[in-house]
Amino acid sequence: MYIPLQRTLIHLAVAGTCGILALPGQAEETQAGTNAGDETPAAPAPESAPAPAPPPAATSAANTVVVSGSRIAARGFTQPTPTTSLTSADFDKAAKPNMFESLVELPALQGSTGRTTNTFSTSSGIQGLSSLSLRGLGTIRTLTLLDGQRVVGANVTGVTDVSQFPQLLVKRVDVVTGGASASYGSDAIGGVVNFITDKKFTGFKANVAGGMTRYHDDKSGTLQAAWGKGFLDDRLHVTVSGEFTKQNGIDSPGFGEVGPNGRTWYDNPALQESTKAMQAAGAPRYKYIHHAQHIQYAKYGLITDGPLRGTAFGPGGTPYPFEYGTDCVGNFCIGGDRAGSVGAGTNLAMNFKRQVAYSRVSWNLDADNEIYVTGNWAQVKSVFSPNPGAAKQGNLAIRCDNAFLPASVAAGCATGYPSGVMSVGTSNGEFPANINVHPTRTQRRFVVGADGRFALFGKDWTYDAYAEHGENTTVIHVRDITLNRRYNFAIDAVRDPVSGQVVCRSAEARAAGCRPINIFGDVPIDMAGWQYIAPANGPVQHTDSSQNVASININGELAEGWAGPISMAFGAEYRREKYAVHGDPYGAGVAYESPYSDSYPLDPTLSATGDNWFAGNYHNGKGSFNVKEAYVEFNIPFLKSATFGEANLNVADRQEKYSTAGHASAWKIGATWKTPVDGLRLRAVSSKDVRAPNLSELYAAMTVTNQAVNNNQGTSVQIQQRNVGNPALKPETARNNSFGVVLSQPGWARNFNLSIDYYDIKVKNVINSLNAQQEVDLCYAGYQDVCAAVSINGPAGTNYVLAQSFNFASLHTRGVDFEMAYRKSLADYNLPGSVTLRGLASRTIHSISDPGVPGTTPSEGAGNMTGSTPKWKALLSQSWDSARFGLTLTERWISAGVINNEYIECQANCPLPTAAHPTIYDNHLPGAVYLDLGGTWNLTKQATAYFKIDNLADRDPVLVPQTNLSLALNPAIYDAVGRTYRAGVRMTF
């Protein structure tokens, strides 16, 4: 992708008070130089570059463009918070179907979710959600804005879906890689990502593109168009846009050790666990193996115990001896019959469709003030399969008189199993369809606002105010999935002594419509039986979220100080968020009110409390909160000297009052120093940032499971574990410190820019969930707030533990960010165009998570390749641009790491493993380098053709083994799709 010139604080005075290094293809008002805001002359444009367009006329509302790390807009202001900016030209060169896919390549963005993540999940609720995460701190700790305004969440956690934004009109995205809660409020612990649209777009532009992988899958098509025009002497301005993107995804190949559509890299990786005896003898607990075979099931059934152990079922139900692999330890062998493996059955990428319609209408009240209204409708649909069949790992109790058992097996069972029951495992390969999940998110958002300027005490002040109402409806349907109890009734089949027909053994189940099914062998399933165990309605979750915001921000200069203008920004905001979620009666329970009750007939054989599905058991819930907040920010220049340079102090404070979490506050103090050394600037900032508990954490719907806990007196107590939200949660608080060195176009290297920033973020009172036993132990240890959720000393049947989240955990991450850019005109060599070298890199030194629970230990996430924070993540590019053509080569680099930092690597004489520190034979996982190539050709002044090849070398993904057979990929770090070709045409009139 095309990397921005510098992580910098864009402050461009349109009147020309500060110089910016101009780059071909970038709009002048959004160019970002390393020393943006400093009075450095602009570098001359190369002779072969097209002449830059004249700057747009200054609007009446403001004469500055300010990046998102601060609310201050003032002459000469250089903010201390590091910020990376991507312009529309950068996204054009990246040539992705979705801006989200470009942003997640930035080194600071780690742990984001998208259409290649969570493809294994049925119940998470975040499938297909394009949400951004900074520093690996999670999407809930990154605040994503549109034109500096909050956007209604696309999930009960409050995170937004970038795919719902009007992306064609985005002219710049600012990624603030430091705490910004003092400026923007809750959730900005990791930072802020602010999408800034072209509010006065005039003309017509369109983009048409298509693509596919080298395996002829994940075919995509994109169609975008935008139009804008001024009326009535440009007092009335209307902008509209529409976007459609379709990506077909990569479907599941089904069962067995086979990759989809010719991909050969999948080899059934797994972590094989040794026995206790082997561990006592010094063997490691885990060993990374390839071509793993799970010995607890086969594709069409496998007997897993007793004298018939190893009997599998094939065509027509014929029994045959199962081919076990070698080196069998625990649940895994190596090699053997792997036809029933389910790991490769997960989609590599979801089938994904986004549709967005956007409009903005503004009216200039006078030369200095405007009012506006915006409307956005967006819908994002995904479809994917998390796994084939429904694997049962040797836990099916099959009676010897089962009517579908072959005669020889039934006879052997009758003589060899005194209990009359044997254990069977199966992948259920006879199922006619794989589980498929269909999330649909629909956003409706309206904003009414005003911005402009006014005079006060002889100074110019600017303001912006808006009121927003946003709604998001998320509906998740799961198809072709079974009801556990119905499945168990249907496979327990006997022959009716009167009619001779095969029927379900349970009379109650027969009365409720049970139809028997045969799971022994490659036998087509009876469709009536399939409809009984997997009814067409399937699990469903319907969530309605809403957000109302009223906000005002005022900005101006208080006075002219001896070192420069003393500036101030202040404002206030009110926000209310609420949600309501309904699940189907089979998942949520028939006792809960559900709008879907009529579609799910009452079945007395199912659990009335819900949780009947194989997966996708969605429950009901609702909740709301509101917050009132106000902030103030100052910029105070305190040094301006030819000898000592220039320096300014930036301070801010925000006070918040939550209806649920109570009072919270945030602040920051930072400074920048333009040293007397040519081109050298230093910056530092320290801030307190907050994240209030979200609706899901506060009001998660209750689910109930039965289990036993130890009452700390040696007695096991049967309890109900009631998983539920915790309205008593308090805000998380963070201390965010950073220090940076910026070198910007020194006299000895006029086209060179470099920045190095160190960051250290400590988050305490982190909201983390506890299990039932942990809560009981903490209560006996004296934690009274936990004791309120524990009741285990009552009569039998009345004991329970509320499994809730509490403010016990902590996070600590620190590292260093690097950014560099160099541009050189080739005119000096009598060659056309110019060359630009750019690079961003992030070194995560530590990413420590501490559960805060007695008996647990902190864990290190930096370099853990099963997580989201590699030790090094880098993005480099080399571009050549001329008046007619352009080429860009990009390298994406991920450093090598480990399976888990808490594992102890050893091959022999290993210490006894512990729960916190297991032993492993080989803990290493390799890194990866991906090459991308793109190019442009200006066909005419109005039309540009382009192409892009991602993962040019078609590098296979690194397999990340699990303790079960799964797809074993980590798309949060590695490319899972393979080489992808895209081409298109952009038009501007």
CATH topology of the domain at 667-988: Maltoporin, Chain A
Quote the average pLDDT: 89
Radius of gyration: 31 Å
Global outline: globular
Per CATH, the class of the domain at 667-988 reads Mainly Beta
Count every helix, treating DSSP H or I runs of 4 or more residues as helices: 12
| End-to-end Cα distance | 25 Å
Largest sheet: 22 strands, antiparallel, barrel
How big a fraction of the residues is strand? 35-45%
What is the CATH superfamily label of the domain at 667-988?
A: TonB-dependent receptor, beta-barrel domain
The CATH level-2 architecture of the domain at 667-988 is identified as Beta Barrel
Helix percent band: under 10%
Poorly predicted spans: 1-64
Helix/strand/pairing category: mainly beta
* Strands, count: 49
Region (Disordered): 29-60
Subcellular location: Cell outer membrane
Motif (TonB C-terminal box): 972-989
Main location: membrane
What does this structure look like?
This protein is mainly β and 989 residues long. Among the domains are: 260-349 and 397-434 and 483-537, no CATH class; 667-988, TonB-dependent receptor, beta-barrel domain (Maltoporin, Chain A). 7% of the residues lie in helices and 44% in strands. It has a 22-stranded antiparallel β-barrel. Strands 3-5-6-4 form a 4-stranded mixed sheet. It has a 4-stranded mixed sheet with strand order 32-33-37-36, with helices on one face. A hairpin with a 4-residue loop joins strand 47 and strand 48. The two termini are 25 Å apart. The model is unreliable at 1-64 (pLDDT under 50).
